[in-house]
TrEMBL record:
PANTHER family: INTEGRAL MEMBRANE PROTEIN-RELATED, MEMBRANE PROTEIN
Keywords attached to this entry: Membrane, Transmembrane, Transmembrane helix
Pfam families reported for this sequence: ABC2_membrane_4
Residues annotated as transmembrane: 18-36, 56-76, 97-130, 136-158, 170-190, 227-249
Protein name as it appears in the record: ABC transporter permease
Length: 255
């Protein structure tokens, strides 16, 4: 599988989209830093680079999730549309191995992009805002980042599943983006008895953290759930989506 993942990385490397996206994130971080610094007093806005990194990490996750949805919707569909899937299937590899290599490539790319963007935001923050003493510590920032990985990977997983259900990449992209942008509205208007069993209510595990700087004041959807129960609930959705994707991929005809 490692060789297959390497091949997928080479395909993304050839398209340059990953590097363009990282460049866009860097430009946005620089624009945010230089836009904020002249207008906002340092004492009121950022006392150091950690608070700056924490602030810009929110749009980083948002844009990276959208980028992941786009990649996940294409990584399988384009193989069938261009006919290159035949070159993969004639090799002595199981279909499920091929499919999982594509999924793990998407996961690794998103984590890599997010990590690079975070490190660069910290570097920019150190240069422009210094290393002043803050309430937010480096460990707390890492916890916030780790909590955001789960929702960042969930929506691309949904897009990946839809890409195996439909034959073209446009419809999975549209549906996944629709779910991503409207999940807040869906959660808000559902009755509480249904809301606590909705996957969207459990994606942000930071709500179980006791530190308000980390949880942002968010509360669990129900007393029936705790951190472990929500994590298992979300993990079950990941497993089901991947199992169904694998089943669809293995039954898909290659013309």
């Amino acid at each position: 599988m490692l060789r297959l993942i390497q091949n997928e990385f080479l395909k993304l490397h050839a398209k340059k989209s990953m590097y363009v996206f990282i460049g866009v994130l860097v430009l946005l971080e620089l624009a945010a830093a230089f836009a904020i610094k002249p207008w906002m007093p340092l004492a009121e806005k950022f006392t150091g680079f950690l608070s700056f990194s924490n602030t810009v990490f929110v749009p980083i996750v948002l844009l990276t999730t959208i980028f992941g949805i786009a990649i996940a919707s294409r990584v399988v569909s384009e193989e069938f549309q261009t006919g290159t899937i035949k070159q993969l299937l004639i090799r002595p590899r199981k279909r499920i191995t091929i499919l999982l290599s594509k999924y793990f490539t998407v996961v690794f790319v998103l984590i890599f992009v997010c990590s690079i963007a975070l490190l660069l935001s910290m570097a920019i923050g150190i240069v422009l805002f210094g290393r002043g003493k803050e309430e937010l510590t480096f460990v707390m920032l890492l916890k916030i980042v780790c909590y955001q990985i789960l929702p960042m990977l969930f929506y691309p997983t949904v897009s990946f599943f839809l890409a195996n259900f439909f034959r073209k990449s446009v419809l999975p992209l549209i549906i996944a983006l629709f779910i991503f942008f409207l999940e807040g509205v869906i959660v808000k208007f559902l009755p509480m008895m249904f809301k606590k069993y909705l996957i969207f209510s459990h994606l942000d595990l930071a709500m179980y953290d006791s530190n308000i700087l980390i949880n942002g004041g968010a509360m669990p959807p129900s007393l029936d759930f705790n951190f472990t129960a929500s994590l298992l609930f979300v993990s079950l959705h990941f497993v089901v989506l991947l199992i169904v994707s694998s089943t669809l991929f293995q039954k898909r005809d290659v013309l």
